[in-house]
Amino acid sequence: MMRNSKYLAMALGAAVLLVGCSAQSPTAPKPTPIASFNLSLTPESSSEVGFTKVRVFARVTTKAGANAPDGTSVHFKVEDRGVFVDCADITVRVDADGTPIGATEAVQQTSGGDAKVCVTWSVGTVLLSAGVAGGTAKTSVVFTPAPIPTPPPSYTPIIDALLPNAGPFEGGTRVTISGVGFESVVQVLFDDIQAQVVSTSYTQIVCISPSITATAPPTVVTKQVKVTNLGNGKVSNGVGFRYGVTMFISSFTPMEGPADTPTTVTIFGQGFVAPVSVEIAGMSVPQWDVLSVSGTEIVSRSKPIPESARTCGDASGAITVINIGSNTKATSTQSFTYRAIRPLITSVQIDSGTNTVQQYVPVAVPPSTLACSTPWGNHRVTIRGSGFQQGMTVNFDGLAPVPTTFVDATTLTLEKLPDLTSVSLERISCTTGAGACGNRFIPTQVGITVNNPRNGCSDTLNNAVVINPCDNSCLVTGLTTMSLGAVAPPNPQTVGTPFTIPLTFTPTPLTAAATVDLTYVGFTATPTSVTIPPSSSPYTIIVTPTSAGSGNIIASVGGGSCTVTAASGVITVNAVTFGLTVTKSGNPAGAGITSLPAGLAACAGATTPCVGTFNQGTPVTLSASTPATWTGGCTPSGTNPTASATVTMDSAKTCNAAFPGGALNVTLTLNGGATGSVTSTPAGSPALNCTTGTCSANYTTSPVLLTATPTLGSFGTWGGDCAACGTTAANCSITLAGTNSCTATFNNP
User: How far apart are CA 125 and CA 119, in angstroms?
Assistant: First the structure.
């Protein structure tokens, strides 16, 4: 059939194209004598890849610009390179040398003023011409070499993991090989045994583990899994697959669910035998419900975390499956995650409109003359979001929480808006029409917090509700002058102890309340503002310092050009101080203790306590020149000597530093003319080498080993604080405690 098609195409080409025909050829079309025409020649593309057919259009018009009559003959000719081919052919025919086959001349008739031919060539520029009575035209087409196809990439396969990585001797385990560089045709070997490949992608291969039953040893064995790209012969690294594991969990889905509602989970693996139990390792969650069991799949339903054990954090644990009949079990390598139900507020709506509410002012508060009579509780609140549950509460900017009505997981409602009278509306300074200074209340934003008592989760939406002031006119400020008087004694003041200062003002008495802002320079204190009720001057302000320093208080009211200010005199605030006493025991001679910050006095080499005074809350680091064991209020407190300890001065504190070692006196008794010596390890200071009388040395470590060495006669016995060593050995170990005294007796019969 293909051979017949080829011959048919050749016949059609021969019928249409004229190869080297003369004008007298009986098969060549004869031009019809016509009047002169205009002719233009245009290829559909000036450049194409070799062996591509390019259509060339001849446009024939009369001298008046009209289309030439249909059937007007156009004579096309190849001037250099190229051949004409049948435009209807699907492919370009070539000879044995790869040269395109076609005609070098062709005659076509116009239709609608146009005639066309198709030209092709291998490589090079083809020059064409066309002629009609009274006109000729030329054009060219460039044929470029076909691009050399890029060979496919040559990958080296790399295996990252096997899932699962174990199975029974009889094979049949569906194994997912994860990695990179896998080509479309691969071979998977478990050592030298070929596995069935189910699917392949660049990053994953799914195969079936082969059976090794015929050569199965009695214990678990490991086969190295390798992948070969058959296209390039490259072989991957090996990853172990264990044979002999008859029960395992390979995966499960989904891998998470809500902490308070059941989730249906499908567990995949091998060796499951009903009846089974499913539980979460390490979590106080009841066993899951088992819905169905097969050898390789369990469908179960999770149990919620008990409400008493829920927190606002996620909880995770591995899944354990137990075959109850054989008490065999398998635990997953991945964890199932219980997601905490966290509320999220997205919007708040008052009544059926926006998030704004009118301030409730039942009786006008001077200097305002306006009242707004709609109570707060007449408004209904709708809170929208996600993660909502039964029993949730809501509070507005620190006000007491109120219970909500649960509609669904996305909607909570309050039938009555809580009383927001305690919310202080923001204000700005202003000037009345008459030029008087004043303040104007402006819309004030209030945040809300939704709380879930069941797990402790909450969410806050700042600026959730906007309170519009009842009166937004410019209200005249009541104060025109202010001054701050002297601070009541004692002076200086102390952090945490309130003191009073008088504020004198005009006019007096005030006819309306006025709010005065307080700024502290050089120290910090509360309050930051006071509201002076309608009263006579002066007004007593109670101030509580919160940090030490020296400076003053600035009182101000109004704003801009309407600001009225007053400054106090210098106020000094002292920090609260506590005493620190450090005692030393053991062998404190020469042992010094310093403090950071400085302040500990008389603490270098003395046995008497050293004391210091520090500000409240100051962390003090004590450093000893010799490691000591610290007790009392210091940290660390214990039996291991350290070079430093810390103490926080939130009250009067006492610490003790016990230094190891001490002083040791050794007295020699020489009987019958005996001679000898007693030395120590460590040597002591000065080095102990006692040969007569009483010798002394100090030690910074304990215990100390004494060695009696006779030079004439023999060693007799130890005494004093060394009496426990008796006569059995010339060596005696003694633990020092302050100053100790020992005797050593030598005898000469």
Answer: 11
| Number of neighbouring beta carbons within 10 Å of residue 573 | 25
Task: State which CATH number among 3.30.70.270, 2.60.40.10, 3.20.20.30, 1.20.1250.20 fits the domain covering 248-339.
Answer: 2.60.40.10
> Is pLDDT at 216 greater than 70 in this prediction?
no
Which residues are CB-contacts of 509 (< 8 A; sequence separation ≥ 6)? 534, 535, 536, 537
CA nearest neighbour of 54 among 8, 16, 102: 102
Which residues in 134-271 belong to E strands, given as ranges? 135-144, 158-163, 166-167, 174-180, 186-190, 193-194, 196-200, 204-208, 221-229, 234-235, 239-243, 248-253, 256-258, 264-270
**Fold type of domain 477-574:** Immunoglobulin-like (2.60.40)
Same fold: 158-243 with 477-574: yes
Q: Name the phi and psi angles at 5, rounded to 5.
A: -65, -40
Question: Which amino acid belongs to residue 391?
Answer: G
Round to whole Å and give the CA distance between 37 and 323: 98
With a CB cutoff of 8 Å and minimum separation 6, the contacts of 191 are: 223, 224
Instruction: Please report, for residues 157, 163, 195, 207, 234, the alpha-carbon distance to residue 230 in angstroms, rounded to integers and kept in the order given.
Output: 11, 23, 14, 16, 7
Rounded to an integer, what distance in angstroms lies between the CA atom of residue 120 and that of residue 101?
9
350-475 has CATH 2.70.170 classification? no
Range from 122-136, 190-204, 213-227, 421-435 carrying the lowest mean pLDDT: 213-227
Q: If you ran DSSP here, which 8-state letter would residue 640 be given?
A: S
**What sign does the CA torsion over 292, 297, 301, 302 have?**
positive
pLDDT at 34: 47
User: Distance (Å, rounded) from C-alpha 633 to C-alpha 656?
Assistant: 8
β partners of residue 467 = 357, 444
- How many angstroms separate the Cα of 718 from the Cα of each of 512, 672, 737? 96, 17, 18
Q: What is the pLDDT of residues 534-576, one digit of tens each?
A: 888 999 999 999 999 999 999 998 776 778 899 999 999 998 8
How far apart (Å, rounded) are the C-alpha atoms in residues 558 and 394? 35
Predicted TM-score (pTM) of this structure: 0.40
Which CATH architecture fits 2-144? Sandwich (2.60)
Q: CATH classification of 662-747 is 3.40.50, yes or no?
A: no
Percentage helix, strand, coil for the chain under 3-state DSSP, each rounded to 5: 5, 50, 45
The answer to whether 418 touches 380, Cβ cutoff 8 Å, is no
Domain extent listing, the chain: 2-144, 158-243, 248-339, 350-475, 477-574, 577-659, 662-747
Q: Which one, of 562, 693, 701, 682, lies nearest residue 628 by Cα?
A: 701
Query: In sequence order, what are the residues at sequence separation of 6 or more whose Cβ sits closer than 8 angstroms to the Cβ of residue 486?
Result: 501, 502, 569
What does the block give as tokens for 448?
Answer: 């809300």
At the fourth CATH level, which superfamily is domain 158-243?
Answer: Immunoglobulins (2.60.40.10)
Q: Tell me the C-alpha distance between 86 and 90, whole Å.
A: 9
Q: Are 44 and 123 in contact (CB under 8 A)?
A: no
Among 430-439, 464-473, 496-505, the minimum mean pLDDT is found in 430-439
